[in-house]
What does this fold into?
Amino acid sequence: MGKPNMRKSPSTSLPSLSVRIDLATEGRIGPGKIQLLENIRSCGSISAAGRAMNMSYKRAWDLVDEINHICRRAAVERQAGGKNGGGAALTPFGLSLVSRYRKIERSAESAARKELQALRADLRIRRKA
It folds into this structure.
């Protein structure tokens, strides 16, 4: 199954951009939920994905349930257990959700790159003063 997808630490390139997409008045998808979905994809279970993010199984399951509710369709499906127990996998919709989010994130980062670099330079100048 492989290791969970670990994104670079934002502190190594601050300031950085974070994308949050409001999908419903009561819900949004952002970097944490997308990372959880990526971890479920790579780990094959909700509990392992949660552990990779230092969260309880209940918290991970609650977030998966929230994602499914917000999107009004399943992004994650449980898989029946065998000798090693059950697991979880992303549905085709879940895979598409992660892919689209990451494309939106890359586009936003690209569009903001010059301004973020300028802000980074401004912050360096200010710290030296």
